[in-house]
Design goal:
This protein has 13 helices and 17 strands. It has two domains: 204 residues, Rossmann fold (3-Layer(aba) Sandwich), CATH 3.40.50; 164 residues, Rossmann fold (3-Layer(aba) Sandwich). It is globular. By secondary structure, it is α/β, with parallel strands linked by helices. The strands form four sheets. It has a seven-stranded parallel beta sheet, with helices on both faces. Strands 14-13-12-15-16-17 form a six-stranded parallel beta sheet, sandwiched between helices. It has a two-stranded antiparallel ribbon with strand order 3-4.
């Protein structure tokens, strides 16, 4: 089985573990993973290494290519000659693109493969779980790209249940599976023995924006800290609401118990998670945005940290039976969920253990790789059965 993977996600070295795991588990698969040379984000600017050989194996090769419109998941595309040449020489059985159903890079891959007359199967990944507000430009151009991509696709992997419902709304009823894009590297995100301390450390990691529930969390914490003097709260991240958050911390008179930590490389997020007793993701839904998965939750769970999450979007599906779920936008519900974990250490430790076991079973890099391979095989098997 020859598989060509295309996604900007793998410019980050920590994310390559999924394909390395798949290659180790299923060495009969010949993998080529393509990503841009450069990718700017809100917080970081990623640049691919000049030499990627350290990440490669006999059956897994990472390749970085020049792109246009880097930083935009829908608009960006690869240098045509190079991508065309790779497809021509590799002749993939499957082309797997993790940029959504309307991505120009996916259109490129399908178009070049059809021109070359190669009989590849096309699979895309999406976790868009809200309905876009379409502009005229989208209706007259990008809607056509989306329809073309969907028509030529043989299967899809969706990151959450809402994304699947949206695909069905677009009349896409070909084989699909609900599976997160990335798993957790259990060699990096792992439990550590904590030093004995009388304090309870609560944490949040992510963009500092209102819809992530950062002010709701601060309000609940401020009230609890008046009752329990051993609480600490740490925010890891940055964003447009940072200045407002700092001012709110001062206004609520909790500056001695709350800190904001600047963003760190992804590998170092594990150190932050390992220091916590409780991790909280208090996001709430907006018309044009919903939490697509909440990867930080499974990273915290992998470090054996008890988790609390709102009932927004995919969050309750991730932490069902292993975490505390509260009603989104409701600070009293959040406060009560946190307090339950504060006062009952045994319950807190039990949730942490349950979360850890769930990650091993469902969300490790190896688990995601195995489910991806099985899905690929089923798509190819269906083709063979129909011949």
């Amino acid at each position: 089985m020859r598989v060509l993977v295309i996604s900007h996600t793998y410019i980050a070295p920590i994310n390559r573990k999924k394909w390395q795991s798949l290659s180790f588990l299923f060495p009969e698969v010949d993998l080529r993973i393509i990503f841009p040379n450069y990718w700017p984000t809100t917080i970081f600017k990623h640049k691919a290494e000049d030499d990627l050989s350290a990440y490669n194996s006999d059956s897994c090769t990472f390749l970085s290519l020049d792109t246009f419109k880097a930083g935009n998941e829908v608009l960006y595309c690869y240098t045509p000659i190079k991508l065309f040449s790779i497809i021509k020489n590799f002749k993939p059985d499957i082309i797997h693109v993790e940029q959504g159903d309307n991505a120009l890079s996916y259109f490129q891959a399908i178009l070049f493969t059809k021109i070359l007359g190669i009989n590849s199967k096309f699979i895309f990944f999406t976790w868009v779980n809200w309905h876009h507000k379409f502009s005229l430009k989208y209706r007259f151009f990008w809607k056509w790209i989306e329809k073309f991509n969907l028509k030529k696709s043989d299967a899809a992997i969706v990151g959450n249940a809402d994304a699947l419902a949206i695909l069905h709304g677009k009349k896409f009823f070909r084989p699909t599976i609900i599976l997160p894009q990335l798993g957790v590297d259990l060699q990096i995100f792992r439990p550590v023995k904590k030093e004995c301390s009388s304090s309870i450390k609560i944490g949040f990691a992510g963009r500092l924006v209102e819809e992530k529930g950062i002010f709701l969390l601060l309000r609940a914490f401020a009230e609890l800290s008046n009752k329990y003097k051993n609480l600490k709260l740490s925010y890891l991240g940055s964003g447009p609401s940072k200045t407002q958050l700092l001012q709110r911390i001062i206004d609520l008179n909790v500056k001695d118990n709350v800190e904001i930590i600047a963003p760190v490389p992804h590998e170092q997020v594990a150190i932050f998670m390992q220091s916590l007793d409780i991790f909280i993701l208090p996001s709430f839904d907006l018309t044009q945005w919903r939490e697509q998965f909440g990867h930080v939750l499974i990273e915290a769970m992998a470090c054996k940290v008890a988790v609390v999450g709102s009932d927004a979007a995919e969050i309750p599906n991730i932490i069902a039976c292993v975490g505390q779920i509260f009603k989104q936008k409701n600070y009293l519900s959040l406060r009560d969920a946190i307090e339950k974990l504060i006062i009952d250490e045994s319950y807190r430790n039990n949730l942490a253990e349950l979360g850890y076991q769930k990650v091993i079973k469902n969300y490790s890099c190896a688990a995601i790789a195995e489910q991806t391979y099985k899905f690929w095989s089923s798509v190819l098997k269906k083709e063979n059965c129909c011949e």
